[in-house]
Amino acid sequence: MHNPHHPLWDLPEFVFHFSSFLDNGQLAAASAVSKSWNAAFSPFLYADIVYYRSGGWFYPTDEAIQAHALHVRSIRFSEGPTEKFPWTSLKHLQKLTINPGLDENWDQLPDFITQNSQLQIVGMNMIHNPILTLETMKALSQCQHLRTLTLRLAQMDNSIAEQFLDLCTRLEMLKLYVQDARDADPSGKLASFPSAKTLWFEVHQGMTLVNQLDIIQRFPKLDSLYWKFGNDSIRTQDADEMPSECRLSAKEIHLFGYHWSGSNRSVDVHMAKIIDGCQHVRSFNAICLNIGPLAFKSLKQRFDSFTQLWFDGCITMTSGMVQEILTSCPHLIRLKAAPLDVRDILGNIKGEQEEIMFHPQEWVCLKLTSFEVPIYGLDGKPAKWQRRVLQQLAKLERLEHLEIGVCDDDGSIHEYHSDGLDLRLESGLEILGSLKQLESISIEGLYQKMEEVDIRWITQNFPRLKRIYGETNVDLNICLKTDAILKESGVKLFYKKDPEDDRDNYDDINYDSDDNEYRMYHIYDRGTGYITE
Q1: For the domain that residue 461 is a member of, what is the CATH number?
Q2: Residues 237-275: tens digit of each pLDDT
Q3: Domain assignment of residue 361, yes or no
Q4: Element (H, E) at 27
């Protein structure tokens, strides 16, 4: 970048490619190099902006937006606009996101949307400020290219609902959160939404599960469904009102619960009927839901088809259910489930000590790339028990992520446990030598006593390993030595500095993402005491 007159900068394709690697600060610096660079990089600097009234290095002022309005394609309002905001100058938006605060003036919003009728993506959070007036809804309905809409509403009246339903018939993605919703009238004006491929549907209170299901079934071509509801919306008396046949077309389904009110039996009945209707599902994800025997029986009918099963915070799920999944789902690629009792893995155990005979049922999910299941019941048991469990795990040769730690439902750790797998050579660690694809191992919440020889074996026999989550030893002096080996081998160690501390108080936090799953870790340097990258 030392030669601002290099002929490469005259090629729009090169500038576009180069700009994709720069953040806002770097784009701003590049724009200040010369007039030609300003002309080349300003369109990228102002294409996607975040608005704050006060402006700043990363937040352009009203005057800057006015001067570069031609380049703005996306704007996210983190605060309401000032009186000088150049509403009429912005006419080329493709994306609009609004998070209004209390008592902010948005009277010009309908006209603003109308002059940007080419909008493709719109998001509005109106929980604290009901800016979604009938005029705004009418303006949105005129945006013929709108394909993605996100709305967070305190409630929605009938007049707005009619415009909303008309608009939704064109959408490909809808994310709708309603804090308090009245039950929809099944005989009312609900339309079908034939274009929608992705639906996020969340009702906090005020609508029964039966009526929520009726709305969701109006989306006949969904690929992905994210459905969050309170268990208090599941009423025992509604079980008979559930349709005899419900059809959900989505191949990827995420079900989220809020509360634990309502009987386990009523939740189980409703979940079973919903799962029965998921005829094309390949990826099933349940968070904070009661998965009882009826719901699990419905899941079993799809075992030959599942590629992902994800159960997080489902406290009614049993170890026996997890073992049945492992022995019945041949196409499973990712699994997260409740803790698994070693007795279920080893089968009908007979005899004592060295005379013990195991009768394990072999796992069939040999395509697994991610295994997130704590294993317990080994505390005080003979070493032979652990070796047989490791032999089962060693058959999962495609594993990229192995998680056997013990965390709370929210991912936090309040105490460490010793009842789990012991990853040391003297305990059979070498049995896992077949897992050559491993990229990450999580032992969070599980006491380990790994020595230098164990860590060296891990780094030498898992050539693709990049990350370890959790403590490798309870002894700090040993940890300092094993940490050095990991650092030398290019393996990053992630662990919680202090489980009792509020994680939000830390500034330096590493977000490790994998297929929309996000976890928060503090990276702590024992030598300096600083939280670091």
Answers
A1: 3.80.10
A2: 565 666 667 788 899 999 988 654 445 677 788 888 889
A3: yes
A4: helix 24-31
What are the angstrom distances between the C-alpha of 380 and each of 105, 257, 386, 427, 465?
66, 37, 11, 13, 30
Residues of the chain with pLDDT under 50: 1, 186-187, 260-262, 354, 410-412, 497-533
Number of H helices, E strands in the chain: 15, 21
Residue 242 lies in a domain: no
- The closest of 173, 175, 135, 132 to 156, measured between CA atoms, is 132
Question: In the Cβ-directed half-sphere of 289, how many Cα atoms lie within 13 Å?
Answer: 30
Nearest Cα to Cα of residue 387 among 427, 436, 344, 441 = 427
Q: How far apart are CA 356 and CA 208, in angstroms?
A: 53
Quote the radius of gyration of the chain (alpha carbons, Å): 27
Residue 181 domain-assigned (yes or no): no
Note down the domain range covering 355: 322-500
Cα–Cα distances in angstroms (integers) from residue 143 to residues 95, 111, 121, 136, 463, in the given order:
12, 12, 10, 11, 52
Phi (first) and psi of residue 303, to 5 degrees: -55, -30
Q: Are 286 and 314 in contact (CB under 8 A)?
A: yes
Q: 222 Cβ partners below 8 Å, 6+ apart?
A: 196, 197, 198, 199, 248, 249, 250
What separation, in Å, do the N-terminal and C-terminal C-alpha atoms of the chain show? Answer: 28
For residue 111, the Cα-to-chain-centroid distance in whole angstroms is 35
Q: What is the pLDDT of residues 169-199, one digit of tens each?
A: 889 999 998 887 765 554 455 667 888 999 9
Can you tell me the distance from the alpha carbon of 70 to that of 66, in angstroms, rounded to the nearest whole number?
9
Query: Is the pTM value of this prediction over 0.90?
Result: no
Q: Which residue has the tokens 């032992």?
A: 443
Phi/psi of residue 514, each to 5°? Answer: -150, 105
Residue type at 65 in one-letter notation: I
The structural domain count of the chain equals 1
Predicted confidence (pLDDT) per residue in 465-520, tens digit: 999 999 899 898 999 999 999 999 999 998 764 444 433 332 222 323 333 332 33
Q: Is 499 helix (H, G, I), strand (E, B) or coil?
A: coil
Kindly list the distances between the CA atom of residue 122 and the CA atoms of 141, 149, 395, in Å, as whole numbers in the listed order: 12, 5, 47
| Within a domain: 475 | yes
